[in-house]
Amino acid sequence: MPNTKLRRLRRWGATSVAVALGTTALAACGSSDDSEGEGKAESGPVSLTYWSWTPGMDKVADLWNEGPGRKDRVTVTVKKQASGDTLVTKILTAHKARKGPDLVQAEYQALPTLVSNDALADIAGEVDGVKDKFAEGVWQQTTLGSDAVYAIPQDSGPMMFYYRADLFKKYGLEVPTTWEQFADTARALKKKSPGTDLTTFSANDSGLFAGLAQQAGAKWWTTEGQKWKVAIDDAPTRRVADFWGGLVKEGAIDNQPMYTPAWNKALNTGKQIAWVSAVWAPGTLTTAAPDTKGKWAMAPLPQWSGGENVTGSWGGSSTAVTTDSRHKAAAAKFASWLNTDPEALTALAKEGGIYPAATTAQTSDAFTEPPAYFANQPDFYTRAADIAKTTAPSAWGPNVNVAYTTFKDAFASAAKNKSDFGAALRTMQDDTVADLEKQGFEVAE
Amino acid sequence: MSSLAVRKAAPAAGTARGTVPGPAPRRRTALVPTLALLIGAAYCLLPVAWVVIAATKSGSELFSTFTFLPGTGLTENLKDLHAYRDGVYWKWMGNSALYAGLGALLSAAVSAISGYALAIYRFRGRETVFNILMAGVLMPPVILAVPQYLLMAEADLTDSYVSVLLPLVLSPYGVYLARIYAAAAVPSDVVEAGRMDGASELRIFTRIALPMMVPGLVTVFLFQFVAVWNNFLLPYIMLSDDEKFPITLGLFTLLEQGSNTPALYTLVITGALLAVVPLVALFLVIQRFWSLDLLSGAVKS
What we know:
The complex is a heterodimer. In chain A, a hairpin with a 2-residue loop joins strand 5 and strand 6. Chain A folds into two domains: 2-156 and 313-372, Periplasmic binding protein-like II (D-Maltodextrin-Binding Protein, domain 2, 3-Layer(aba) Sandwich); 158-312 and 394-444, Periplasmic binding protein-like II (D-Maltodextrin-Binding Protein, domain 2, 3-Layer(aba) Sandwich). By secondary structure, chain A is an alpha/beta fold. Chain A has 18 helices and ten strands. The relative contact order of chain A is 0.18. The longest helix of chain A is centred in the first third of the chain and has 20 residues, at 2-21. Chain A is globular, with a radius of gyration of 22 Å. The model of chain A is unreliable at 1-41 (pLDDT under 50). In chain A, strands 1, 2, 3, 4, 7, 8 and 9 form a seven-stranded mixed beta sheet that branches. By secondary structure, chain B is mostly helical. Chain B has a single domain, classed as MetI-like fold, CATH 1.10.3720. In chain B, helix 3 (74-83) packs across helix 13, helix 8 (172-185) packs across helix 10 and helix 12 (247-255) packs antiparallel against helix 13. At the A-B interface, helix 5, helix 12, helix 13 and strand 9 of A face helix 6 and helix 12 of B. Chain A: Pfam families: SBP_bac_1.
C-alpha cells in the first residue's frame, strides 16, 4: 500500500512539476542543487532565513539562536511577511528565481500548490517521531496522503460555536448540539426578537465554508491514480450549502458578510448573538465586540447527527522547508524544534498568540488560563483541546485559491438574492475543475 | 515657432484675473456646475476625513461609535505606533522617503537628459526610441514587477535597496513629459546661441537648458515621488526583509497577521494618516516652483 501511494505521488509530482515549470530541464537543475545542498549541510555555521507572518516570531527564533541553534551553529533570521494568498505567489516567484528562503510559513490549504510547483522539500527523513505529537487529521494535511512530509504543523484552528450566554438566557434559548437544533434556535430567536439574528452566512469567508464542509465529511480534492478528483459538489458539501441556503432564504439568519464594521457593530450591540468560528475567535471578538467582554461562551460545533463528535478547521498553518534551501537538514531540525519543543511552543503561544497544533502543547502551562475575553469560562482551553482532537481530516488540492474565489463570487450573489445555494456550489465545482484542466492537471470525472 | 510656444505658455502665469478692464460682469452662480463640483469635492474629501477621525479613535471606539465622531485615542494610537516593534514604523517611513526621494530624483535626472536629447538633437532612430517610450507609457508598471524580479535575481540584487530603486530610474512617462517640455521651453535659438559662443553641449544642457526645464522636471519629480510612495507590488516582490520595507508594505503586514491575530486596525489607520503628511508637505513646498513661468524672455518674440 505505501508503495503504490508513493509511486502515485511521484508520478503526480513529476507531471505537475513539468507542467508548472514548463520544462523538465529546470526540474533536473533543481534536483542537482538538492544533492549538493545535503552534502554541505553538516559543516560550518549555517544561516537560515524564515518567512513568517506570526507576530513575535523573531523572538521565538532568538530562543533557538541562543539555545539549540548555538550548539549546532545554526542561526535563523525571521523576515516578517504578510499572510494570505499573496505570500504564496511571492514564494513561488522567489522560487522561480531559486531565491526562496530556507523556511516558509504556509497555510495548510496552500501546501498542495507549493508542492506541485516543487517549492517544498520532502523532509520525511529528517523528522522521525514528530508525527505522534499531532492529531492524525492535522498531520495528514502535511503529507498530502503520501509517505512524504512537506511541512510540520504549527497552529490549528479547530472550529467551535460561540454564543452570547447572557442573551441566550434572556431569549430562553438552548445551546444547539445538532445543526437541526441550530436551525430551530435561529427560528425561535426570530420569533422572539425579529430584529435579532442568531448569526450570519458570510460569503466572504471561504475558509469557514470549507471547514463546515470538512466537518460534514467532504473531501474536496483527492487523487485517483495520477488524476485529481474534485468533489466540491458532492453530498456532504451539498448538505452544508442547502442547510445555510435554506436558513438565509427563510430569513432565519442574516446574509451579510463578516469582518465588516457593520458586522462588528452587530456583535457588539447584541444584534447578532452567536458566531460559528474557530479557537482564535477570542482575539477577533476583542477588537470586534469590545463591549461584550465576559458575556460570550464557547461550545462544541453543532453536529449533523446526535451521537457524532466531529469538527472542522478554519485557519492554521505549518512550517515548511523549501527546495531552494541549501541546508535542508538544519532547516528541518529547526522546524521540528519550533513546533514540538515545549519552550518554543510556549513562546509561540505567548508572543504570537497562536493555538499550537501539537497536542501536548494544547494543555501546557500557556493554556491553563482562559483568554482574557473569556474569563467567565475557566475551562476554555481544556474544552478546546478536547474539541481539537475531533478535527476531521481535510483534503486540499493545488488550486484552493480558485475554489475560494469562485466561492466568494457565486455565494455572495446567492446569499444576497437569497437564491439557490446548490447552483452556486455547482459553479464552484465547475470552475475548479476547469482551472485544474487549464493548468494541465488530469482530472478524473 | 519657438516664440509661439513661449507665448502659448504665458497664460500659465495666472495673472489674467483682475487685468480685465471695464466693469465686472454681474456674476450669477451657476448652480449645477457648482453642485457637481461640491459633490466631487465631498467624494474626494470624505475618505480623508474618515481617516483623520478614525485615527483619533481607540480600539474599542473604532467600530462602536458614530463614524464621524472624533474619539479619544489619538495620543494612545501614536504611542502604540511608535512602540510597535521598537519603532519599526519610522524605519518604514525612512525607507519610503529614500525610495521615493532618491528614486524620483534619479528618475527626474534621467528624464531630463533623455527628454532634452530627444527634443533637441536630430538623429536616426529618434522617433523609434520615442515610440518605444510611448509604448512604455501605456504599459502598467505592475506587469513588469515579476520580470524585473527575475532580472534582479540574475544579478543577485534581490532584497536590497537597489532592487527597488533601479527599476524606478527609467520612467517612460517622465521622459515623455520632459521631451514635450524641453521642446516647448528650450528654444533652439538659445541652444544655437550657446554653440556660437563656444559652449560645450554638456554646458549648454546644464547651464542653459536645465534651468529652463525646472518647472517641468518638478512635475516629473512629484509624479514619480507620489507613484513610488504609493507603490506596492514592486517592493512587495523584491523585498523580503521587513527592515527594508516601505510604508505601504509595512502597513500591509500589520493588516495580514494570520487568522490567529486580529488586524491592528488602529495602528494601520494612524500609520496611514501619518504616511500622507509628507506628501501633503511636499506638495505645499514644491508647488511654488510650478508658478515659475518657463523662464520666458530668453528669446524676444
